[in-house]
Amino acid sequence: MNLKNISIAIDGPAGAGKSTIAKLIAKAIHFTYIDTGAMYRAITLKILQEHIDWKDEIQLKKLLDHTKIDIIQGNVFLDNRLVTEELRSPMINRCVSDVAKIPLIREKMVELQRKIASDKNVIMDGRDIGTTVLPNATYKFFVTASLEERAKRRYNELQEKGFPQSLEEVKLEIQQRDKIDSERKVSPLRKHEDAIFIDTTGMTVEEVIDKILSYIKIA
After folding, report:
1. pLDDT tens per residue, range 72-83
2. Domain limits of the chain?
3. Distance CA 123, CA 33 (A)
4. Which of 118, 97, 121 is nearest to 43 (CA)?
5. 12 assigned binding-site residue
6. Euclidean distance between CA atoms 216 and 207, whole angstroms
7. Is 19 annotated for ligand binding?
8. Does domain 9-204 have CATH number 3.40.50.10860?
9. Which segment of the chain is annotated as a signal peptide (predicted)?
10. 42 in a labelled binding site
11. pTM of full prediction above 0.70
């Protein structure tokens, strides 16, 4: 296999552990990791900070034309400002799916994501990587877990960062995000017919990584 321009797409719902898994696999095989969810979170952060009405296409286009999003060594920079930690706040969690379903925003993000992947070996995770962003990806995976397990993972993550949310609140938010992500008109969350399905319920991160790596041949 040509070792240039190999692409790995990992899709799945909120709380499935996609980002953690993708980061560790990228490190293991020396690929560039692109957290597409963080890109949507970054634009959501800017919309909230600037009090933009995300239903106003004129305001949104102006915002997008004057927004720079970079991912450097796993850190997210919004207009040259480090925002990695801010992107996991409960407010962003509540709003990001509504922002991400807006066609104008998805078009811009997909354009940026494809550009990044055009000349690198990359691993991307998100909701529509295998179906829309990189439909010709070398490898496609759909990673999920039970609602209860995904809620516990997200709850523990929020507790570690000091965000006071109950487990039930987190579970309800994830249910709502699942509904929005799977029912949106543009690039809904779904498994590509070629994607390898992996249910991570009850699995450790190491077990999931080993399973995915067992499918990937780069030498």
Report:
1. 877 889 999 999
2. 9-204
3. 5
4. 97
5. yes
6. 15
7. yes
8. no
9. none
10. no
11. yes
